Amino acid sequence: MKPFETAPRTAGKSRPAARGTVSVRGRGTDRILDVLDHLERVSPVTVKDLASALKAPKSTLYLLVELLVAREYLEPASDGHYQLGPRAGRLGMAYGRTNSFPAVARQLLQELADASGVVAELVVLENWTQFVAFAMTSADNPYLRSSEGARFPLPHTASARFLLRDVPPNTILREIPAEHYRFPNGDSITPQAFIDDIAASRDALACSTRGIVAPHLSCIAAPLLGPDGKCRAAVSLVMPLAEIDAREAALTQTVLRTAAALSEQMRMIPVNIPGT
Fold first, then answer.
1. CA-to-CA distance for 1 and 105, rounded, in angstroms?
2. Deepest of 36, 95, 148, 176, by most Cβ within 10 A of its Cβ?
3. What does the DSSP 8-state code read for residue 270?
């Protein structure tokens, strides 16, 4: 196998709840969770945006947003928009403290970023986009910023060739929107060419792309394999386009070592990667 490139609780006795109380409370809880789920994917948004996306009454959402702001799960942005607030961030940090794999992944990604001098990412497939679960930067290239939490169209990324290799082609063709096949640099890839790239990844250790995710960037990616041998995530290096030709061979080996180490960790400890 070889690398490949692709272009209040009330005191006293409890009483049975009145008929409908549980279901009403349940719907309210569902909507609160729907709001938070949506803000995790799209932020900032207005209440009107939420009403449209969630198909819920604006009057209800105004009350829920007001509650979430008061509890700091949301905070106002600009022009009537809202975004996730500091308490939501603290929940994320608490999750990271109780899950061992993220701690190991961040350490190995930081070592990769320091060794390569560029951005190191761990990415996963989520909602038919590539989601950057973790990203670490190098002090050598401060102008290369972390894109942790960002999402990218799948055809734009080297990692997606691995993330999709266990997905049937007809499912891929059905789920990826047509506009995702157009690149920021003005070029495009046909759906069939993308399917061919994914097929090629099954016999490859790594994949590189040039100027696709952004005109000035290149990427080198390698898969993370779970105990079943299937691709669960991918490691990627993001670097200036001008650097990849001279450094691709050496950096590919560095990425492969990190991918192997993370794959081994996935076999040894419970894994819950954001987005999976």
1. 25
2. 176
3. -
**Mean pLDDT across 189-201:** 96
Read off the pLDDT of residues 242-268 as tens digits, 9 standing for 90 and up: 999 999 999 999 999 999 999 988 876
Residue at which a domain ends, from 58, 88, 118: 88
Phi, psi values for residue 104, rounded to 5°: -65, -45
Residue 47 vs residues 24, 25, 36, 57, 67: alpha-carbon distances, Å = 21, 21, 13, 10, 13
Assess contact for 202 and 224: CB atoms under 8 A.
no
The amino acid at residue 172 is I
pLDDT score of 103 more than 90: no
207-210 and 217-225 beta bridge pairing:
antiparallel
21-69: per-residue pLDDT in tens?
A: 334 445 778 899 999 999 988 889 999 999 999 999 999 999 999 999 9
Q: How far apart are CA 261 and CA 28, in angstroms?
A: 44
Beta bridge partners of 120: 136, 237
Longest Cα–Cα distance in the chain: 75
In a domain, 8, yes or no: no
Residue 46's alpha-carbon distances to 27, 33, 78, in angstroms, are 21, 16, 10
Q: Look up the pTM and report it.
A: 0.66
107 within 8 A of 220, measured Cβ to Cβ: no
Residue that is last in its domain, among 29, 61, 88: 88
Helices (H), ranges, the chain: 21-41, 47-54, 58-70, 86-98, 100-116, 160-163, 169-175, 191-201, 241-268
